[in-house]
Amino acid sequence: MSSNISVIMLCAGKGERMKSDLPKVLHKIAGESMISHVMSSVSNFNISDLVAVINNSQELVKDEVKNIFPEAKFAFQNNPQGTGDAVSIALQEFDNREDTLIILYGDTPFIEEETIRSMIDKVEVDSNDVVVLGFNNEADNRYGRLVIDDNNNLNEIIEYKDASDAQRKISICNSGVMAIRGENIEKLISEINNNNAKGEYYLTDIVSISKNNGLKSSFIIVEEDEVLGVNTQYERSIAENKLQDRLRLKAMSEGVFMADHKSVYLQKNTKFGRNVVIHQNVVIGKNVEIGDNVEIKAFSQLEECVIGNNVVIGPYARIRPGTEIGEGAKIGNFVEIKKSLIDEGAKISHLTYIGDSEVGKNANIGAGTVTCNYDGYNKLKTVIGENVFVGSNTSLVAPVNIGKGAVIGAGSTVIKEVMENSITRNQMPQINDEGKALKYRENRNNKIES
Asked: What does pTM read for this prediction?
C-alpha cells in the first residue's frame, strides 16, 4: 500500500474485571500480550504516527508498545470520559492530519491485517469518510447497533443504553474499530457531545455527525471472533482457545500431524518443517524452530530453541531457551536441556540435565547424568567431545572439558579435564562378602520377631 496511515491504540482502561495488578492489554494470549497481537495487524503498513492512549499508571504498557514500535507516541487519559474523549486527547500528539486514521483497541487481539486493508480501501478507493467494522450477533447483547437504511448506507451507531426496543433488535453490532479520513477527524471529534445515558463522549457519534456534514459513512462485516474483546480472565481463556484452534489448524494445513490436536499448544511464531509429528500434551513456547521429520512425544515442552532435522524428543522432555539440537539427535524421557548445543547424532535418552553445555557428535549421555553448571554465583560451561560415552549417574562439575572419544565410568564425579580417548572412573573399590546377605537377613528377622 503506497499511502501512509496513522493509528490510535486505545488502551487506557484499567481492566478491573481481570482482577489482576497487570494492565489488561499486557495479559498474554498464546504467549504474546494482547496489545502485541493488535499491533501486529498494522505492522506491515506505512505508519506516520502511532499514538497509544494510556493512563499515568501504565508505564509497563508504554514499555511494551515502545518495544514493538519504537517511534510510538503516547497520550494520557487519566479521567476517562469515553472513546471520543480518548481520540481527542490522542489527536494532540499527531503531526499529520492527512493520513487515513485507524482506531484500534488494545484488548481486541484478533483483528486481521486484511480487514484493516479493506477498511482503508473503503476510505481511499471508495471515497468514504468513516468506515466502521461491524459483526452479526442475533443474541440479546449490550453492543452498540449499526443503523443502516434501505440503500445499505450507514446512518448512525446507537449505543445500547440509548437504543429503542426496535433498534436493540438490529443484529449488526459495532466493534468499535474505525477507519476515518484524516482531514475530517478534527472537525468530527469537535462536534461530539455527552448528551447520552452515560454522560460520555462517544466516538460512535461521528457517524451521524458526518452525515449531518454531508460526508459519507460505510461499514464492513466480519466474523464476531475477529473482534472479540477480552475483559475478564474467563474471556481471556476463551480467546486463548480460539487462537490455539487457529494455530493448530494452520500447522496441520501445512503438514504437521497432531495425534490429539486439542492438547497441543503453540505460539504465533512457531516454525515447522515437513513431516513433523506431535503427540499428546505438547506445549511449544515462543521462538521455536522445528526441522523436517521431527517427532515430539507426549508431555514435552519446548521454548526458544532450534530443533534440527530427524530429531526425536520426549516423552516428558523439556527443551529450554538457548538450545540447539542437531540432526538425528535423540532427547529422551525426563531430559532437561538449557542453553546448550547438542550436535548431530548425540543421544541423551533419559533422566538427565544438560545446561550451558556443548555435546559433540554421536556422544552418548547415560541416565542420571547432571552437568553441574552453577557454583552459586555464575553459570559455567561443560564441553563434551564427539563420540564420548558418559556412564549413568555421572556428575560433570563445570567448568570441565571431556575430550573426544573419552569414556566416563558410571557413578563418577568429574572435576577436571578428561583427555581424548581416556577412561575415567573414580568409584570406591567394590567389596563382595560372600554369604553375608543371609546373616544380615537373619539378624533383621530376629529383631522384628523380638
From this structure: 0.86
